[in-house]
Amino acid sequence: MNITILSVGKLKEKYLKQGIEEYVKRMSGYAKVEIVEVPDEKAPENLSPKEEEIVKVKEGERLLAKIKDEEYVIALAIEGDTPSSEKFAAKLDQLATYGKSKITFIIGGSLGLSTDVMQRADEAISFSRMTFPHQLMRLILVEQIYRAFRINRGEPYHK
Fold first, then answer.
1. Which residues are documented as binding site for S-adenosyl-L-methionine?
2. What are the Cα distances from residue 50, in Å, to 15, 56, 104?
3. What span, in angstroms and rounded, lies between the C-alpha atoms of 15 and 151?
4. Per-residue pLDDT at 158
5. Binding positions
6. Which domains does the chain carry?
7. Cβ atoms within 10 A of the Cβ of 43, count?
8. Which residues lie closer than 8 Å to 57 by C-beta, 6 or more apart?
9. Which backbone phi and psi does 5 adopt, to 5 degrees?
10. Which residues pair with 37 in a beta bridge?
11. Rounded-to-integer distance, Cα 3 and Cα 54, Å
12. pLDDT tens for residues 58-98?
């Protein structure tokens, strides 16, 4: 399986980078994992709704340019379904079983994802109704993907 994590913005925090690198290394026996960053759009704090939409569209264009037609796309969005770890694992297993071996997860910038990105996504998931920094979501996502592989292989993993 080939997994791409496509994310807006550059990860700067060393502790997050180390955590992500650790999980990517652990997954090397299960899948090839690639992390791709696209630049975020510089924007001041107080944007009008129209300005926010412009930022999301520009970031969305950068994201969409990195996605190939054959990729199964899962957008991380607060309004997405909230699967349990077991259901998330079953979904990844189902995708692999039915020949969807190229999976791309998309993490948007601080304003979220554009309508065009959401329309390109095959599905949307949310790990919580809470809002998390998009940098932290990368770590949470790689941990859950790793956990899914362990669940699908019947291997022990702490609960």
1. 76, 108, 127-132
2. 35, 10, 28
3. 26
4. 65
5. 76, 108, 127-132
6. 2-152 (3.40.1280.10)
7. 17
8. 114, 116
9. -110, 110
10. 7
11. 29
12. 999 999 999 999 999 999 999 999 999 999 999 999 999 98
